[in-house]
DNA sequence: GTCTATAAAGCGATAGAC
DNA sequence: GTCTATCGCTTTATAGAC
């Protein structure tokens, strides 16, 4: 493995951690250099500017997030199992990347127009096999008439939002970190249950 | 009305808008001064430092948000009507304050420990009459066994998250701003329906 | 490729006149 | 209370030696 690749990746890794924690405007090039154990000048040597370093990292994170979703919605399962799998997938994602959702949404919010190109890849979701399955089942009358996007957003909301709003929810329920984890674990289970039951319109 | 009060309020107003858009570290005192049509020195005259100005604004926004919730959960209604009213209330809040949720969550996330005192007021929610009603109905067997906090988080998630993730959701569904508003309006209706039906465990 | 030193601009905060 | 001018520090970015 070449030495320059190693340094470049080391920078991306450490810069990623700091951007995720402090956002673009809160992060400092000096802090990134210190964290990576190199010099400030190296950051500019490899990525020219703070903004270009940030953009590369942001794009990777956004891609990773989108890929996680699209793969789940396109594999070989029934629509119900996809919703359950999506809940599981998102749970694992936010559990291991607690600070990514708020980071993504915040940076997108502060620079709505700038990232519009990068957001195009999320349009693939509407073309996923989940949508086709869902529409087909709805036509057959097996599912209550509902916008499939509402269903997906139900899962996204249910699992991702608690992590975004963790300080407030923890305070509401007087939960310590361990209790919050338990709370989220329980959510992972009931969120798909609730929406599936609604769609099938079947009480137990 | 005294002139100094008017200036102070003008500062709070304009600083609020800019902090909400750009966050603490992204906001600039010069920009706030320009927006308010006054001088940078005035900001320090009235609020000493950027941080103290920010804290005053942040606290007001957090209080406002919490009050909106607590009032709804404590008024005179059935638990079902409270969930529907909460959905309506949150919808109105985010509709008129699109950038507040992400602002709140982001600043709380970046400064978790610092705001712990201010978050104490959210503990009131657990003591609200909604919780008492809910536990009582659950004991009677009219509601499926569920953590009432999960129920509230369901409403919060369902309504607030879409605004936080608006860029991504709009892209997923290829929605323009008007279509997104319609999407959110539909959510306001179905989110409480879904959870109430689940709790009562009654198909139509 | 990697470092030190420094430029150049930005920013929060203060001094002091009015 | 309000302004101009400026201080002093921080931060991004570059120059140049090795």
Mind describing the biggest β-sheet of chain A? none
Q: What CATH architecture of the largest domain in chain A do you see? A: Orthogonal Bundle
Can you count the beta strands of chain A?
0
- Report strand % of chain A: under 5%
Alpha-carbon Rg of chain A, integer: 20 Å
The largest interface is: A-B, 59 and 58 residues
**What is the number of helices of chain A?**
10
CATH class of the largest domain in chain A: Mainly Alpha
Question: In whole angstroms, how far apart are the ends of chain A?
Answer: 58 Å
> What is the name of the CATH topology of the largest domain in chain A?
Tetracycline Repressor, domain 2
Indicate the mean pLDDT of chain A. Answer: 95
Helix content of chain A: over 70%
Query: What is the structural class of chain A?
Result: mainly alpha
Shape verdict of chain A:
globular
Overall number of structural domains of chain A: 2
Order of helices and strands of chain A: HHHHHHHHHH
> What low-confidence regions of chain A span 5 or more consecutive residues with pLDDT below 50?
none
What oligomeric arrangement do these chains adopt?
Answer: homodimer
